[in-house]
Amino acid sequence: MYLCALCVFVVRFSSGSPRQPPGKASMDDKYSPQQIEAKWQQRWREQRTYSLAATAGKPKFFLLEMFAYPSGDLHMGHVRCYTVGDVQARYRIMKGFHVLHPPGFDAFGLNAENAAIQRQIHPGDWTESNMKRMREQYERMGFSYDWDQLVVTSHADYYRWTQWLFLRFYKAGLAYKKKAPVNWCPSCATALANEQVKDGLCERCDSVVTKKLLDQWFFKITQYADRLLSNHEKLEWPEEIKTMQRHWIGRSTGVEVDFTVEGTGAKIPVFTTRVDTLFGVTYLVLAPEHPLVNELVAGTDREADVREFQERMARQSEIERTATDAPKEGVPLGVNAINPATGEAVPLLIANYVLVDYGTGAVMGVPAHDTRDFAFAKEKGLPIRVVIAPPSDPTATDSAALQDAYVDPGVQVNSAQFDGIPSTEAKERIADWLEERGTGRRQVNTRLRDWLISRQRYWGAPIPILYCDKCGEVPVPEDQLPVVLPSDVSFTGKGESPLAGSPTFVNTTCPTCGGPARRDVDTMDTFVDSSWYFLRFASPQDETQAWDAGLVAHWLPVDQYVGGREHATMHLIYARFVTEALHDLGLLPFDEPFTRLFNQGTVYLHGKKMSKSRGNVVPLDAMCDQYGADTARCFELFIAPPDEQAEWNEKGVEGVWRFLRRAYTYVVTHRERFQADWRSSLAASAPTGEDDQAVRRKTHQTLQRVTEDLERFHYNTALAGLMELVNELYVRPGISDTVLSEAAELLTLMLSPFAPHLGEELWEGLGKDGMAAFQSWPEADAAVAREDVVEVVVQINGKVREKLSVPAETTKEELERLAMASDKVQALLEGLQVKKIIVVPGKLVNLVVGK
Questions:
Q1: Is the pLDDT of residue 240 over 80?
Q2: What's the pTM value of the predicted model, to 2 decimals?
Q3: H or E segment to which residue 211 belongs
């Protein structure tokens, strides 16, 4: 809908070259974005234009985009986030803020390690070359980064402090080690990341991937589940992101009930939110990986079937196992458990839909009152017992009559002493009864699991822990950080963690006893690096501490964060958790990192997300070579609201380029008429001509609109308004020099955040001092912007039935009178009674009518 605004433009060129006015810089009569952009990029580099010092002494504003992974050449899908952020950073500078807008690279990760294996190049070399290339492209796009503030997570002067953070968590009990399953390729004899498993096979050798238990490090994020939820109230974030996080955390209140294995007395705790259905449990399901399973079937005739099922489940992902359309599979263990409510023995099974690390790894089977359990019980021939009847028919207890599970509240039946009471009340009374008997306890559970941070890879921050035969597990002293990645490592993609193959890395000295020790050979999840990087930007070159406390207190929290919604349940939760934990450790004066969040939409080409792997990308350099960076920036922002999906359209790119050319051509053609003192001229004598008044009105209306749209990130409509203003200037050639001067200057300033190279070129061409980027954002004159005549719609019960052209200052009473006096309205009101009249001055009159 936004591209159609371009069709109103009729390109008009003046004949001949414009005169060169005194005091004004030379400007070509032809718009040449590549020449203009190269000129200003060089000047910005030489003068360090966007140094943090440039706006010092003003109120702070920390604008941050989610930093990039250094993957090499950028395409137009990549840079939308940074373009959205850059416009806002430039606008905030012009609004009088001291803006911190830093660049960074999330430089550790699996892709670099894969590149090392495939290209036989060190991942550090591959990463550095990619960062160099991307910096060139960022600069070509005109992003206002202060490169002195650069943060790179793979540099030792950064990951030293990532290791320091780990040690702080370790000493506080927030980092711990336990056995956990990893994807394991028996052929490569190595752990695999989820991304390296394709359809249950190793992407390197096509071997069947299994699960293997390894000792791994975790951060205790579950300890912060309640805070992560309650703090949502103070975040100015999209509700969609908060909802995604609430679902991910999955807080639920219920009861943990103890079932007992028949004949052994072993306890199986089961968490349930529906303790009112406890009397209806007819079987119990364990996760295939539950630690009791192997013990219960060892040496029995069920052992072979159970082992086969476990191995098959180990080859499936959690998503595959728990998908709603996945078949529910299970194997009986040949063992019973005792229901503590009824004393009855119920069969024990294992099933694909139960996960060992969710809840207790055990689930009650209540087929009469759970849809999944009902389908499973029907398929396996398991008993079904009704224990809650509908309030409308409390005698409906025949399970054979059930067509599906009854899941709504109702009346307890077949529930011993709890029969006849509402099931909502029974939840509390049964919980009390279990607690009194010592067979259950109220509990809050979450879907959120502790954060597994161990990675069996090279290209990451080494975990700063040593193992000594005498002293056991020993943290590396902080004064011995960083634990630096070794260079004597081969990249084959086979064997255990690459660090384990480096004797110079593994073998060290215990700092406690002085004896021999071994280093931990895992590295940290790269999400650990990005969970605190925003703090480092306050003092990125500080060699003595992770961050300067005074500077962090000044700059943080981030005022505006920009990034994709796909990070809602990983990075954004991890960063919040780390900030909250650091606050509790007395290291930060705030407990949330990002005050406001904006999610940019994804760029699509031919109906699919732009992606190198799909081959449907628009290269950044090709765009800049053909149209210029300013066109690339403006088109990305114009094709759709920045928070929505955008479909790339080559014809639209050309339209935006024509718009920028027309703006340039207008200023070049008329700049000899530009009056630097136009404000004094307007103050002395307000223009009275129709064209003058129309252009001034349009200019100030556009300024009002663009200002509001910049505050709301409505960049597409802001650009549409600027296009309309340029068109107005072309269709009213008879305006005075004073009005032209005002329009040209304000147009230049409004264009500057969107098309910064063009903004500077026009600003210089008009003979103005300094740079457009550092001028104060202009204020619209409401009196000038006000329309003399406005169109007011008349609605009847919300439907538009008439339109009135009236003076802008028409009162509510007069609008009501005019609406009721309309012959068209009177005809439509015949036989009806006007019950209410709603008037919005300058916009509408709505008549609420009825019989």
A1: yes
A2: 0.86
A3: strand 210-219
